[in-house]
Specification:
The chain is built from eleven helices and no strands. It is mostly helical.
Length: 301
């Protein structure tokens, strides 16, 4: 083993940072189970042409995309417990908290569009009530878990004095910055100005759809830009597992509902680019991390 490989292996065996709170692991597992179940339901409904979301939607595609994102991220949430320190999990947990708090807030702000309020079918009416109740509990739990996590003191040299095990290649940083900024900007626009930005989407949405999709876009942007802050593939492994799975799930729903999308428009082309960027980012990141692990002669969690 080379000197560089020995150094990388030594750093991997003795991580620095805050100890990962058990509450964060439990929350991630619970959300993972719920996301896998509910997300699959919403995505499958969209594949069959039915809008089965918590609120009334003019097109099945929007709740289907929300469901696809939920189902795609679920497997990665079950891997949070493998992280040895908080810094190895935060690139996925922080976007998770944004989704939980954001979707709960959007549901309350658009309460008039909920299936239960609009008198929708009994199943969807009950689903919408459960959606709001469960999201409220999980959002509160996420805030509490993060508060407890950040009360823990860093061990070792801490983040500031730590050298990355597998730093991001210089060539990857500009594309990551563009991709993350794109998702972040779209998410912020849909959340804050849903009427204006929602009209720019290449399919029909209402206010609740626009803000719900905005929450997920914002979370994806924070996750991608967070990888630049970490600058270490070993510390974003859970997120690297989530990103390509989310991209594939989104692509499957978009392909099934392709007739509802104006692909010839600028926003349609931008959507393809953003989803493809997620897939390329996740796959290339996993390949680069595997190569760094082989060069170090060891394994990372």
């Amino acid at each position: 083993m080379s000197a560089t490989g020995q150094e990388a292996a030594t750093r991997a065996e003795a991580p620095d940072g805050r100890a990962l709170s058990p509450a964060v692991v439990v929350l991630s597992g619970v959300v993972g189970g719920i996301s896998a179940t509910v997300g699959t339901l919403l995505a499958v409904a969209a594949l069959t042409g039915h809008a089965a979301g918590a609120w009334v939607s003019p097109e099945a595609l929007s709740p289907g995309l929300v469901g696809a994102a939920m189902a795609g991220v679920a497997p990665a949430l079950f891997t949070i417990g493998r992280a040895r320190v908080w810094e190895e999990a935060r690139s996925l947990v922080l976007p998770l908290a944004i989704v939980l708090v954001g979707l709960f807030t959007v549901s309350l702000l658009n309460a008039g569009s909920l299936e239960a309020v609009r008198g929708g079918p009994l199943f969807l009416a009950l689903f919408s009530l459960g959606w709001v109740a469960v999201l409220g509990v999980l959002a509160l739990a996420a805030v509490g878990c993060l508060a407890a996590q950040y009360r823990r003191r860093p061990t070792g040299t801490g983040t500031a004095g730590r050298r990355p095990v597998a730093p991001l290649p210089a060539w990857s940083k500009p594309p990551l910055a563009v991709l993350g900024s794109g998702w972040l900007g779209i998410g912020a626009g849909l959340l804050c100005f849903p009427d204006f930005w929602g009209a720019l989407l290449p399919w029909t949405v209402n206010r609740a759809d626009a803000q719900g999709l905005g929450v997920w876009a914002l979370a994806l942007g924070v996750g991608v830009l967070g990888s630049l802050v970490e600058d270490d593939l070993a510390r974003i492994r859970p997120a690297l597992g989530a990103v390509p799975a989310v991209a594939v799930a989104l692509a499957a729903v978009l392909a099934a509902r392709a007739s509802a999308v104006d692909w010839a428009s600028g926003p349609g082309a931008a959507l393809v680019t953003l989803v493809a960027g997620l897939l390329a980012t996740g796959l290339s990141g996993r390949w680069l991390l595997a190569r760094a692990v082989r060069a170090g002669g060891g394994d990372t969690p």
